[in-house]
Structure formats: C-alpha cells, structure tokens
Automatic annotation (TrEMBL):
InterPro entries: DHS-like_NAD/FAD-binding_dom, NAD-dep_sirtuin_deacylases, Sirtuin, Sirtuin_cat_small_dom_sf, Ssirtuin_cat_dom. SUPFAM superfamilies: DHS-like NAD/FAD-binding domain. Zn(2+) binds at C116, C119, C136, C139. It comes from the Bacteria. This is protein acetyllysine N-acetyltransferase. GO terms for molecular function: histone deacetylase activity, NAD-dependent; metal ion binding; NAD+ binding. Its EC number is 2.3.1.286. Pfam families: SIR2. Keywords: Metal-binding, NAD, Transferase, Zinc. The keyword NAD applies. It comes from Tumebacillus avium. The keyword Glycoprotein does not apply. Residues 1-216 form the Deacetylase sirtuin-type domain. The active site is at H108 (proton acceptor).
Length: 216
C-alpha cells in the first residue's frame, strides 16, 4: 500500500468514508449498468419510468430485492464498521448497517422500506413481494420504494457536508463522485487541506489493511 496512505490513516482521528456501488460488488450486488429485460437499471430507476410504468418498475424492484436479501457485507464493509468510520453512502443495500456501522447517511434511501408519498407512512419492502402494486392501507395511494430515483433530490446532503467538514481524512470507496451534489464532498475536504484516499478497485482487500492503520 502507498506509504502516504499509511501515514494519513495512522494520523486520522475523524475519518469519514463516502461509498458507492463498487464496495458492494464483491457482495454480489449489481451496479446500475446491469441490464434487466434489455434495459439498464440506470434507465429503469428514474422517477419518469416509475410514474409511467409502476407495474414494470415493481417487477424489476422485486428482482433487486431477491439479490439484496441474499447479499452479506464483505471485508470492506466489515473493516469500516470495526474502525467506527462514519459512512456517507450512495448505496441502498443497507450492508454497512448489517456489518455493524451505526453512523450511516443513506443519500439514496434504502431497499428496506416502501413509503406513501401522500401520508409519508413507511412499510417494510416485503409488502411488494406479495403484492404487484402495493397501496397504502390508510390512504390508498400507490406506495413507492423508499429510494431516491434519478430525477429526485439526494437526501441528507447538508449533514454529509457537515461530516466531511469535521473530518481529517476522507475515503472515497467504490464511486467516482462525479455527479452533483456529491462531487462537492471531496471539494470540501480539499478546501480544508484534508487528505482524500480514493479506492475504486479491490476495496475488499485494501480496506481491511488501511483500517488496521486507523485503529493504531
Ligand atoms: Zn398513505
């Protein structure tokens, strides 16, 4: 491993990690480039597609739930949890929490829940496994998976910016952070003179080693 990384890691007291789809690939989860019935997940998981064709959307969502239920955290998730690193994630899979992380901001929501857009009640996502188009028992509105679709605003971005503002090391794992507004997170670190360690490949190998230095 890069000597500079080891120095940064061993000096860090308030590390924050921003994670994306790449960290969960070794757990068997797909990225948005996966195709489903000839369409990519990126094309399906948009607010426009959901509004136009919720039935097809839910078919795809149910298949994602199958992958998700079988997925377990890999050594990268486990290393971050063991070192109590604060996590800002673009993932919806909940694997950081399954690994034992408690400070987790889910910028894109989660696959655990469905939400009623009218009364904001939450329901467990397995409701969608027994009902092709689940509706809210209270107000009869179609329930929506509690995930952020393309075309919707990401969540918790102000808190995420605050966490990065307090950090003394930023890990960027399994994501390139090219999109607005998440691209501002490494910029905040840069403005504060905080080192940024990118880790886009082999995070399940690199992070257990790197996090060992965080514990030192
Ligand atoms: Zn409702």
């Amino acid at each position: 491993m890069d000597r500079q990384w080891i120095t940064w890691a061993s000096q860090a007291r308030r590390p924050v990690a921003v994670t994306g789809a790449g960290i969960s690939v070794p757990s068997g989860l797909p990225t948005v480039s996966k195709t489903w019935r000839g369409l990519t997940l990126k094309e399906i998981f948009t607010i426009g597609f959901y509004r136009r064709d919720p039935l097809t959307f839910y078919d795809c969502y149910r298949d994602m739930l199958l992958d998700w239920r079988e997925a377990a955290p890999n050594p990268a998730h486990q290393a971050l949890a063991k070192s109590n690193v604060r996590i800002i994630t673009q993932n919806m899979d909940g694997l950081h929490q399954k690994a034992g992380s408690s400070d987790v901001l889910e910028l894109h929501g989660n696959l655990r829940e469905l939400i009623c857009e009218r009364c904001h009640a939450l329901y467990p996502s397995h409701v969608a496994e027994i009902n092709p188009q689940p509706h809210c028992p209270t107000c009869a509105e179609l329930l929506k998976p509690n995930i952020v679709l393309e075309g919707e605003d990401v969540r918790h971005i102000a808190v995420a910016a605050d966490w990065v503002g307090q950090a003394d090391l930023l890990l960027v794992i399994g994501t390139k952070l090219e999109m607005e507004p998440v691209c501002m997170l490494p910029k905040i670190a840069g403005q504060n003179g905080v080192p940024v360690i990118p880790c886009n490949k082999k995070s399940e190998v690199l992070l257990p080693e790197l996090c060992g230095y965080l514990n030192a």
